[in-house]
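PT: before anyone asks, these are the final sequences, not the draft ones from last week. 786 residues across everything. Please model them as a single complex and drop the result in this thread when it's through.
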Amino acid sequence: MKRDDDNLRDSRRKLLAGLAVSAAGVLAARGRALAGESATSDEPDKRPRRWGLVIDLDRCVRCGGCVVACQQENNVAPLGPKQAVRTRPIHWMDFLPPALGSSLPTPIPCMHCEDPPCVKVCPVGATYQSPEGITAQIWERCIGCRHCMVACPYARRYFNWSEPRWPGDELSSLNPDVAPRPRGVVEKCTLCHHRIRAAVERAAVDEEPLSDEAVRRLPACAQSCPTQAISFGDLSDPESEVSRLARSPRATRLLAEAGTRPKVIYLREDT
Amino acid sequence: MKAARAAVVALLALTAAGLYAGGQQWIRGDAVTDLHTIGAGGAVWGLYVVGDGFFASVALAGLAIACLIRVLRARGMEAVAQRGVLLALAGLAASVVCVLADLGRPAAAVIYLPLVGRARAPFFGTFTLVAGASLFASAVQLVLASRPAWAQRAQAGGARFWRALACGWQGTESARRRRARVDFWLSLALLPLLALGFVVLGCVFGAGAGRPAWLARLQAVTFVVSGGAAACSLLLLAVALNSTTEHTADTEAGKQKVRSQVRTLFPFRSVSVSSVASVVKSGARPPGAALARVLALLTSLTVLLVVAGQILALRTPSLSAQRYAYALLAGPWSGLFWAELVLFFVAASVCVARFWRGEPSLFGAAATTLFVCAAVFIQRFLSLVAWQTHGLSLPWPTGSYHPTWVEWEVVVGIAAAAALAFSLLVKLCPAVTSEPAGLSGPEGRGRRFITTTCLLIGLAFASAGLALSGGLGSGRFLDPILPGSPLLFLGGLFLMLSAPLLYELVPERPRPESQ
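LR: through. Structure below.
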């Protein structure tokens, strides 16, 4: 009987020791992985890009060209008269009623926050932050709970209340690089991610670094702006135009007090 | 009898109308609702989410009341506890249907939530703890508590159906002891789970973009307290409807028993006695009176919290909170806000006037329930919708929301189906107060081993599932490490909650005849 007890105690001891060793191994591996991550991000050449926008409110003439270009580029379906009356528009780029000390409306895309509340609340990972800082959305995975819309302090997300329809032969003129979204999912600005990817691939094929000049007017809104009020670029590159503009004394952010650290920076109007 | 039949027919008709409206939404999409885009003059969460919050909080509060009664071993209120569990089952099922009605892609939710649900999102707690575990726990409690009643029916009618449901209940001393143990320990274990579920729901309802943290917390507390009030009122109605079974504690023996239990639980007079204890103390009175006291207390507390929230919101530097408060006090939502306060006040008054000392009348209970439930529903509505239309941080135009007939019919249909389910369960699972049994006593090693093994395996699965869903402390919000880990977590919780089933249902080994 005593021998049985001893055997039992030994096997328990072995089991506990095994568990402890395994746990230590997992923790050590995890620590090494984290240390590796941080070491990589400290190297200047390998520093991940942080794409951002700068919108100069002094240059902006509020023509709405950016809004239309965005709709066209990203296959946003036009609304029927009923839906338009019921205030269900989808404008990835929109105009906010006067803010930031301006007496005119302010163009407002998704802020692509460093600490995005919409990503935290998404229950299925349909919204995520890409390594380059873009708050992206996997349409196929979205379950349509709209928690992200409630959480976004900028109200920059849109739900497809009905099946998108394109009148006449507009269907044939859709952009093949962007998938149309079905009914029941949330959609948002992607900073024209497909254009960024194409530019990065082109640079890789040409074996040249992706220059700031090549991306400055990359998104459709920036490209279409007649006064070049919208600039796009890498905020982690101190030499880029957006970084230079972000250091301007006129630079400000919407709802900076909310702590979301938006990557869309506004330049106030000159007074 | 005629009135009961008419009520059932009316509930069936309302359920059918709800199904029709749900079908319309399925075909034509969410465009048939009056939900709009936030910032473009609307609210994206409306009647469905309000209904979800209402039903879920009522259900959790009902289950919490049942657990408290069983932990405190207030046997005179066993019928109330049983009704609480039934309320939890019907309410949780209704809340799940409300969520499914709200989702843009419910089929995708059924696939993706168990596969890639993220533990850090509040919705994870809603679907695992509130919808999954609480629903399962209610079912376990109901099955185990109803076995004696089913066994009685089997003896009376001899039907195989009841015998199968009773699962071999023989009412022996050891079986009753096991029943008492499971009642106590399962209820005790469920209380923290329910508290966690309430916190998750309170967070979802209290938090809104740009809402000051203190206001979010205050609204979360209001959510919990008012949910308790609604559950109390519904239980009061259930007690009034079936008051004949609730008089166990009316007899002198019953009174003595309850008093002795209270003395055991609260030996020191100086102990601060909570509202829960007051329920037990008043166990010598009819349970309806005790419920009415708690209801009056919770209703008054809700009014206090709502008023305090408004006063603080008006004085806060946050512009969005001020806009929200003005919209409620004198703006487009003022009618509903004042109606909510009046309904709470009237309900509390009726409670004090009619039930403080006496037995609840059916009419009085029905009126109180109607007032409290309407007021709680409005409270949920204003807390959720008014913030979306008037509490935005940026100067977007203010919005409006007027639910369409489809939304009303769906929610009313869900409520009617829940009421039908509740009535059916009351018929199927009557409360039986069996002879009391102590908690201590000998127990077979085999039974203990099986139960403990099930509990430990469940705990291991649940811990692993939670850790894998949460990304093991990774700072990023990524997918679970292992696809399907939310399902593992849920499976683990189900296994843990199945342990009491095993403990009670494992058959007793026949004892050899003593020489």
